[in-house]
Amino acid sequence: MALVSHPVKEEMFLTTPVENLFIHEAMGAAPGDYVKVYLFGLMLCHYPPQKDMTAADMAEALNLPVEEVRKAFDYWARRHLVEILQEDPLQVSYLSVQQHLNEARLMDGLYRYEPLFHKITALLGPEVSLSRSDLERIFEWMEVLRLEEDAVLTLVEHCVLSCREKGRRVSMNYMNKVAAAWAQRGLTTAEAATEYLRQEDQIYQLCRELLRRWSLRRAPTQDDLAYCQKWLITWSLEAGALYQACQRMNAAKPNFRYLDALAQELHEAGVRTAPQAVDFYADRDAFAEELKAVLKALGYFGSYQAELPQSLYRQWKQAGYPYDAILMAARQLARRGSNRLEDLDARLKTLASQGRLHVEDMTREEDALRGWGEAFGQLLSLWEEDRPPRESESRRYGRWLREGFSPALIRAAAEAARNARDKLPYMDKLLAAWREQGIRTPQEAQAAQRPAAASAVNADLHFGHERPAPEENDPFQDWDTPV
Fold first, then answer.
1. CA–CA separation, 237 vs 193, rounded Å?
2. Which residue of 38, 122, 154, 416 has the smallest Cβ count within 10 Å?
3. DSSP helix/strand/coil, 93
4. What secondary structure letter does DSSP report for 94?
5. Is residue 473 classed exposed, middle or buried when 0-12, 13-18 and 19+ CB atoms within 10 A define those classes?
6. CA dist., res. 207 & res. 242, Å (int)
7. What DSSP string describes 423-450?
8. Structural contact between residues 277 and 245, judged by C-beta atoms closer than 8 angstroms
9. Radius of gyration of the chain (CA)
């Protein structure tokens, strides 16, 4: 134990001597957090704590990251105010401020970069001369910010060109801010800095071009540049793809927010290049035109931009349903008096499961249906009914043919049903009775119409009192029967 000491925590009410030379010569050019670390360490030198203090303890006391504490002591070590005795765990010895003023030792550090300073002077031109404080700042870019020499040259060249374009004279303060920003972004090499500058120029040029296309005569704002950075860098969209998106804008006053929504569509679709954008919009336009045609054929009165039509049509396309077949199915459904998308969806799935979702098959069915309609129209003429045949009637005629009844026998049944109230059910029963009796021709049917036989048949047929069969009320009767 020391011979003498202050009471525990007594140092809170005492003072730490700081040399005025430090305040005048060293403190002004140092970062504020570095000064905090130096002064706290100086206090510990005068009033050692009861237990060993680590860099982490100091960082916690100063509310700083541990790495910042280490950087601070590295900074003061380069200025010969402290000496790093050990890196891990960190041990630091404070030196006299007088050593900092030793011109020879300071210049030794600066002389190491003398060739670099000559290159920087050449880039700045004769109108700019570097003072010793300027050289110290450049020294800090490399020693503190860890910028490589080539990166420093790239930085100076960029700052000079940027200021000349704006008609201003480059200053050390401006270059120092750029150096700090580059270090924060991790641009410590010439390659990284060059790529960053290329991207920045690309972002700026895109922003200017968009403003020109929209006839907006103003400089890009930070928000404008942020949008362009997101599109080009974050989403990797090419400028050509964005120009294609611009052509889709129909707002009276185009703006970056509107374009951002279109760019997000491209990004989510995996579109990157201009040709991909052209194909994307061509496919989307074709999708919309096909969907509108299908809805029109169906007689659907809702918007083609609604979620349900788009979702269903997208499912049909993904399932491989041909557009022509979808369109024909919609027309068929509309003729049956339905314009519900759900009915069309069910119809398409049924045809697809039966392997009949092909225009050729559906066309043959249409042709057959047309022929059945013409044949049934002759029966209507026989009954002196002046109207076109309904589709259900045409399909019933086709069913009779598939059941093996000849057109002549069907006509004979129609003549027999001339005076019946419900003619089609009557014909169904009559044809069924004839089939049971083995009647195949009109002559056989006429011969069978003897009074007793006719009476027996008529007793079974209930002339003029039949109730319509249930399927007559079903608009989808024979819907799924292959032709």
1. 22
2. 122
3. strand
4. E
5. exposed
6. 11
7. HHHHHHHHHHHHHHHT--SHHHHHHT--
8. yes
9. 46
Residue indicated by tokens 């010793």 = 132
How far, CA to CA in Å, does 160 sit from each of 124, 145, 164, 482? 7, 20, 6, 82
- Specify the pLDDT at position 9: 62
Q: How far is CA 401 from CA 24, 368, 418, 483, in A?
A: 114, 11, 20, 11
Residue 349: HSE in the Cβ half-sphere, 13 Å Cα cutoff: 9
The pLDDT value given to residue 100: 62
The Cα 417–Cα 424 span in angstroms is 8
- Confirm if 420 and 426 have CB atoms less than 8 A apart: yes
Count of alpha carbons within 13 angstroms of residue 322, beta-carbon side: 14
Per residue in 274-307, pLDDT (tens digit) is 999 999 999 999 999 999 999 999 988 777 778 8
Give me the pLDDT at residue 102, please.
56
Give the predicted TM-score (pTM) of the model.
0.54
Cα(439)–Cα(306) distance, integer angstroms: 57
Alpha-carbon distance of 329 to 217, in angstroms, equals 54
Q: What does the domain layout of the chain look like in residue ranges?
A: 10-101, 104-188, 196-272, 277-349, 361-473
Nearest by Cα to 272 from 301, 309, 232: 232
pLDDT for position 87: 87
pLDDT at 80: 76
pLDDT in tens, 457-483: 454 554 444 444 444 444 344 454 544
DSSP state of 469: P
| Orientation of helix 341-353 relative to helix 307-318, angle to 10° | 10
Cα(54)–Cα(386) distance, integer angstroms = 107
The answer regarding whether domain 10-101 maps to CATH 1.10.10 reads yes
Residues β-bridged to residue 86? 91
